[in-house]
Specification:
Elements lengths: L1 E7 L8 E7 L6 E10 L2 H7 L16 E8 L11 E4 L2 E3 L5 H4 L11 E2 L19 E5 L4 E2 L6 H4 L5 H11 L7 E5 L3 H12 L3 E6 L5 H7 L3 E4 L13 E6 L8 H4 L2 E9 L11 H5 L4 E4 L5 H14 L5 E4 L4 H9 L6 E5 L4
Parallel strand pairs: 10-11, 10-13, 11-12, 13-14, 14-15, 16-17
Antiparallel strand pairs: 1-2, 3-4, 3-8, 3-17, 4-5, 5-9, 6-7
Helix pairs in contact: 4-5, 4-9
Bound molecules: NADP nicotinamide-adenine-dinucleotide phosphate (NAP) and zinc ion (ZN) (2 copies).
Length: about 350
């Protein structure tokens, strides 16, 4: 067993606090990663506070995990001690169903074992996330990270990166396409950078006027202040694709109006309450609204390699573990620039 230091929420209303537990010793196919950095995703907050339904407690959140391999099981070929490694939003799946075979393990027909607030394939052993010193994961669910890249700025790619890369790629982002990004937070800022790196012209829709200069620095050509409804008028029928990352319930109809004929809005923000939309927002212009959930292991590796090649990394504020609760409050107030990353040396 591996003694693991961590930060955990003990209930939906208690702040996260130091917590020690054990991880399994490596089995033949396992890799043990000593965690260097872990990003703070808004999903961690939704979960730790039971906003998506009752969570399992104690809850150690964190699914933007990077570190280095310190032990490998006998059958491990993919990693050796000292390699850099990443772990994202899930740590296991059946490996045999159609979706797993298709490298879409996040949609496993049997069970996707999410990195925290889930259980292992046995259906009993709780999973605990990356706000912790170590993690033991099957090699097939661990991502490779090239040496030389800034590890702290790579951490957010494991969720914010893949969650935006996947719909951007699926819906044809490339030179000549116009992409809207709604919400400039952790996911939003990665969507801007990745869409720009894919060659698209990017427009940011934000409730925060103070983020305009940042949006342009991140790669956006245009910035629309959504608190002023008049600003939408100039954007009617202009965009091919929108990636909507907003973390709270809102009316998506005004954004649908900015899509071209047959345009698509990919919803990735997981608002705990239902969003609103008017049917005619889709009917006129034959528009589509689709969901997207992170990405499979193959696509996550492809995204990591793309981002390292294009030097697309997250803009981060590194914090000690003792600041997690403060970081949660600032994230909720949309005051994160643009991802908090916990330095695990401070545990
Ligand atoms: P975040 O850093 O907090 O960013 C969310 C942004 O949404 C904020 O910065 C803000 O941007 C905007 N926003 C917040 N409240 C709003 C409101 N009431 N009305 C309009 N805009 C609002 O969060 P994140 O980590 O990027 O995550 C975003 C959402 O995606 C969360 O719900 C998370 O759980 C979900 N998520 C989904 C997946 C998936 O696979 N689908 C994966 C990861 C995360 P402005 O200041 O620019 O307005
Ligand atoms: Zn996440
Ligand atoms: Zn499966």
């Amino acid at each position: 067993m591996i003694t693991t230091k961590a930060y955990a929420a003990q209930s939906a209303t208690s702040p996260l606090a130091p917590y020690t537990f054990t991880r399994r010793a490596p089995g033949p196919n396992d890799v043990v990663v000593e965690i260097d950095y872990c990003g703070i995703c808004h999903s961690d907050i939704h979960t730790a506070r039971s906003e998506w339904g009752p969570a399992y407690y104690p809850c150690v959140p964190g699914h933007e995990i990077v570190g280095h391999v310190i032990q490998v099981g006998k059958k491990v070929k993919k990693f050796k001690v000292g390699d850099l490694a990443g772990v994202g939003c899930f740590v296991d799946s059946c490996g045999k169903c159609k979706n797993c075979k298709n490298q879409e393990q996040q949609f496993c027909e049997v069970k996707t074992c999410f990195t925290y607030n889930s259980t292992e394939l046995d259906g009993k052993t709780p999973t605990q996330g990356g706000y912790s010193s170590h993690i033991t994961v099957k090699q097939d669910y661990v991502l490779k990270i090239k040496k030389g890249a800034p590890l702290d700025r790579i951490a957010p790619l494991l969720c914010a990166g893949i969650t935006t890369y996947s719909p951007l790629k699926r819906y044809g982002t490339k030179k000549g396409k116009k992409v809207g990004v709604v919400g400039l937070g952790g996911l939003g800022h990665m969507a801007v950078k990745i869409a720009k790196a894919m060659g698209a012209e990017v427009t940011v829709f934000s409730t925060s006027p103070g983020k305009e200069a940042d949006a342009r620095k991140l790669g956006a050509k245009n910035f629309v202040m959504t608190k002023d409804p008049a600003q939408f008028a100039a954007w009617t029928g202009k965009l091919d694709l929108i990636v909507n990352t907003v973390s709270a319930a809102h009316d998506v109809t005004p954004y649908l109006g900015t899509l071209k004929l047959d345009g698509t809005m990919a919803l990735v923000g997981g608002a705990p309450e239902p969003n609103q939309f008017a049917a005619f927002g889709l009917i006129f212009g034959r528009k589509k609204m689709v969901g997207s959930l992170i990405g499979g292991i193959k696509e996550t590796q492809e995204m990591l390699d793309f981002c390292v090649r294009k030097k697309v990394f997250s803009d981060i504020e590194t914090i000690p573990a003792s600041m997690i609760n403060e970081a949660y409050e600032r994230t909720i107030k949309s005051q994160v620039k643009y991802r908090f990353v916990i330095d695990m040396k401070t545990l």
